Amino acid sequence: MNTATKLPQTSLPLSWTQKWSNLHHKMITCLAFSVDGRLIATGDLDGVVFVFDISLDEPLLCLHLDPSVAATSLLWAQKATLWIAASDGSVSLWDVDSTSAEVRRRVTLQR
To answer: 55-95, pLDDT tens digit by residue?
Structure first.
């Protein structure tokens, strides 16, 4: 028997896409919604990842990977843990505190 989990309904205005495009200097390569649908992360070819709270008008955090790598994949685990894969094969875990707009912990695994 297959069961489905109802996901939160998220509707974003067109201005959000324009905002993302203006913040990133290079092409956006990945995007991920948090489990609760409240946070969005976008990554680009410069290794820059922005974290947005959909209730705010500006980015919550700007995370920087090594400038020589691109962010290739994003995955939210639990409420505020963001996994970021990079073009050099590394994977970083960022523990994000969305209430204080801080990174509590960062761990990088190298290939």
So the answer is: 887 788 888 888 899 999 999 998 788 999 999 988 888 88
- DSSP character for 35? T
Distance separating alpha carbons of residues 36 and 54, to the nearest angstrom: 11
Domain count, the chain: 1
CA dist 13 and 56 (Å) reads 13
Owner of token pair 């995370």: 63
Length of the chain: 111
Q: Residue 73 sits in which domain range?
A: 14-109
Phi-psi region of 37 (alpha: psi -120 to 50; beta: other; left: phi over 0): left
CA quadruple 97, 98, 101, 103: dihedral, nearest 10: 30
d(CA 88, CA 105): 21
For residues 53 and 38, give the distance between their C-alpha atoms in angstroms, rounded to a whole number. 6
